[in-house]
């Protein structure tokens, strides 16, 4: 199964969530578009401890930390959907991390979430909790539903806000598959701990 990790904003915690998913599922990892440094595939590599995860190179590795369409334009590149070739994961799960939020443009026509159907993936939505996150999360869910994209569940990231979480789940009809606390230090031990929690509830 392919799982596409997207967020409600740029700094939602997609890379940490991706590392936890890779650790829990012993899945391979791929970031199709990387704009700016540090490279998220290196971060994931540094956070996981299993020995089976394979990390695939980016299709587009862009220099500027900006929207992919803008970063590509600076380099005289136009991102093309037909350039993306799904890695062969040898019958393993594959975690695909998107760039920014789901409606971030790849070019003048296509947005990040357009990759989901190309890759035949289910979405894992990462929602960081801040003032305004209810609106941003529900708008993201609506965009996914309007495209008939299946969502595996929501990962809440950051300081807990039970009322925000409750209303998001109620209004979206989705389930929470993990809650990530506001950790002071992120390291492989933390990732392994969350991976155990995730896998225990993965098929609930």
Automatic annotation (TrEMBL):
Subcellular location: Cytoplasm
Top-level taxon of origin: Bacteria
Binding site for ATP: 11-16, 40, 97-100, 193
Active site: 31
Major enzyme class: ligase
InterPro entries assigned to the protein according to its UniProt record, in alphabetical order: DTB_synth_BioD (IPR004472), P-loop_NTPase (IPR027417)
Pfam families: AAA_26 (PF13500)
EC number: 6.3.3.3
Reactions catalysed according to its record: (7R,8S)-7,8-diammoniononanoate + CO2 + ATP = (4R,5S)-dethiobiotin + ADP + phosphate + 3 H(+)
Cellular component, GO annotation: cytosol
Keywords in alphabetical order: ATP-binding, Biotin biosynthesis, Cytoplasm, Ligase, Magnesium, Metal-binding, Nucleotide-binding
Predominant place of localization: cytoplasm
Cofactor: Mg(2+)
Residues engaged in binding Mg(2+): 15, 40, 97
Keyword hit for Transferase: no
Metabolic or biological pathway: Cofactor biosynthesis; biotin biosynthesis; biotin from 7,8-diaminononanoate: step 1/2
One of the record's GO molecular function terms: magnesium ion binding
GO biological process: biotin biosynthetic process
Family: Belongs to the dethiobiotin synthetase family.
Quaternary structure and partners: Homodimer.
Function: Catalyzes a mechanistically unusual reaction, the ATP-dependent insertion of CO2 between the N7 and N8 nitrogen atoms of 7,8-diaminopelargonic acid (DAPA, also called 7,8-diammoniononanoate) to form a ureido ring.
Descriptive protein name: ATP-dependent dethiobiotin synthetase BioD
This protein's encoding gene: bioD
């Amino acid at each position: 199964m392919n799982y596409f990790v997207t967020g409600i904003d740029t700094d939602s915690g997609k890379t940490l969530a991706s590392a936890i998913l890779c650790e829990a599922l012993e899945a391979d990892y791929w970031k199709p578009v990387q704009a700016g440094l540090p490279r998220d595939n290196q971060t994931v590599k540094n956070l996981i401890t299993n020995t089976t995860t394979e990390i695939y190179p980016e299709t587009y590795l862009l220099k500027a930390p900006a929207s992919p369409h803008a970063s590509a334009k600076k380099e005289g590149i136009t991102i093309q959907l037909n350039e993306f070739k799904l890695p062969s994961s040898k019958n393993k799960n594959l975690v695909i991390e998107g760039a920014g939020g789901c409606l971030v443009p790849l070019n003048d026509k296509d947005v990040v979430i357009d990759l989901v159907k190309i890759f035949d993936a289910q979405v894992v939505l990462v929602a960081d909790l801040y003032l305004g996150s209810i609106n941003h999360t529900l708008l993201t869910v609506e965009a996914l539903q309007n495209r008939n994209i299946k969502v595996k569940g929501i990962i809440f990231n950051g300081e807990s806000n039970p009322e925000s979480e409750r209303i998001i789940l109620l209004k979206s009809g989705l389930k929470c598959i993990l809650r990530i606390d506001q950790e002071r230090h992120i390291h492989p031990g933390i990732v392994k701990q969350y991976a155990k929690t995730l896998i225990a509830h993965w098929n609930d």
